[in-house]
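Journal club side-thread
Mid-discussion, someone asked how the predicted structure for our own chain would compare to the paper's figures. Pasting it here so we can look after the session.
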Amino acid sequence: MTQKNTEDPSSQKNDSDCGCGGETGCRIEAVLSVDERGQMVLPKDVREKAGIRTGDKLALISWEKNGSICCLALMKADNLSCMVKDILGPLLNEQDRS
């Protein structure tokens, strides 16, 4: 008797997957075009939803796989510095106690 493969093909890991699949809460907000100067425009509704205002700094975060960047993300730089402080703060405090 031939055994049928009942595993869902969408649950199988693809070598080209970089780990930012739909189950992580990521979604496509907009599709951007890059002009000849390398500039992009974030749509107004996305900027408003993200609380991005004129003069705000954004951190560009990349994920690399097999020597090539596969994904890019933007984060408000203020949020990034807060995350770093949250992660490193307890470690630095622990070292100070030693």
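Post-session note: The chain has two helices and two strands.
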